[in-house]
Amino acid sequence: MTQPTAAIVTPRASAVQGFFRELTRSKSGFVGLIIVLLIVGMSAIGPLVVDPSNPTDVNAIWGRPSAAHWLGTDGAGKDTFKQIVLGGRTVVFVGFAAAAITTVIAVVIGSLAAYFRGRFDAVMLQITDVVMTIPQIVLLAVMGAFFRLDSPLWLALLIGALSWPILMRSIRAQVLSLKEREFVEAARLLDLGTFRVVFGEIVPNMASYILINFIIAVTNAIYALVGLYLLGLAPLAGSNWGIMINDAWMKGAMFQNDALPYILSPVAMIVLLQLGLIMLTRTLEEILNPRLRDK
């Protein structure tokens, strides 16, 4: 008679299961995760299932919500609901891509500057001081004037390349503390090499800190992107939530009573996405920070 085989659970799989169990146990964290997944999913899958054709209809300008147009129409008679579904991809892509660029630059430069110290550290600190003293929206406006920002990738590169200094200083402070620990001294004694000591021993011990700051960077990147569109500093071609807000502002939608759904729809989507990310960040802090978790 054969004995039942017990499921083999590795320590890493057990840690992942425990992480998601803690995440779903927190109501705010779980709600935040659901909001983020729904908006990201809608932005990714929506353009594949919704007809992208959204023609102008002069007979339906600033139309109210109806069975044909669930969220009404804009100043050109285009369906608002379609614009919401089709317009999230750029905002979500730029937000996450810019945050990834910001995080990678900050982690690499901050870790190496703290590990090597000396002239490299001093130069990096001087560069961050210069970048941080210039208001980011002004810097984005100047850069936008020199570069043609007609691609979401270019927008992500621009925002990501200008947003790393603050996080770089935080990462540098973390590495300055970690580099004096015993496990780093042991890695040095084993002569593992600088690359492996920094990125194989020190950086993995900051994984939770980096993850939380990555999500915060997503929210900041989305704010920067919407600000660029609202001020007209990025090309207003195509359709996304930032362009919708700019379009509502330029066409005086706030003076049209029936245009309220068109104004509020993109704002509500951005607020919901930001709220979900913030709720998720707070819960991750409680889960991953032992001092907060024990309270």
From TrEMBL:
<feature type="transmembrane region" description="Helical">
    <location>
        <begin position="91"/>
        <end position="115"/>
    </location>
</feature>
<comment type="similarity">
    <text>Belongs to the binding-protein-dependent transport system permease family.</text>
</comment>
<feature type="transmembrane region" description="Helical">
    <location>
        <begin position="127"/>
        <end position="147"/>
    </location>
</feature>
<keyword id="KW-0812">Transmembrane</keyword>
<feature type="domain" description="ABC transmembrane type-1">
    <location>
        <begin position="92"/>
        <end position="281"/>
    </location>
</feature>
<feature type="transmembrane region" description="Helical">
    <location>
        <begin position="30"/>
        <end position="50"/>
    </location>
</feature>
<dbReference type="InterPro" id="IPR050366">
    <property type="entry name" value="BP-dependent_transpt_permease"/>
</dbReference>
<keyword id="KW-0472">Membrane</keyword>
<dbReference type="Pfam" id="PF12911">
    <property type="entry name" value="OppC_N"/>
</dbReference>
<dbReference type="Pfam" id="PF00528">
    <property type="entry name" value="BPD_transp_1"/>
</dbReference>
<dbReference type="InterPro" id="IPR025966">
    <property type="entry name" value="OppC_N"/>
</dbReference>
<feature type="transmembrane region" description="Helical">
    <location>
        <begin position="259"/>
        <end position="281"/>
    </location>
</feature>
<feature type="transmembrane region" description="Helical">
    <location>
        <begin position="153"/>
        <end position="171"/>
    </location>
</feature>
<keyword id="KW-1133">Transmembrane helix</keyword>
<dbReference type="InterPro" id="IPR035906">
    <property type="entry name" value="MetI-like_sf"/>
</dbReference>
<keyword id="KW-0813">Transport</keyword>
<feature type="transmembrane region" description="Helical">
    <location>
        <begin position="209"/>
        <end position="231"/>
    </location>
</feature>
<keyword id="KW-1003">Cell membrane</keyword>
<protein>
    <submittedName>
        <fullName>Peptide/nickel transport system permease protein</fullName>
    </submittedName>
</protein>
<dbReference type="InterPro" id="IPR000515">
    <property type="entry name" value="MetI-like"/>
</dbReference>
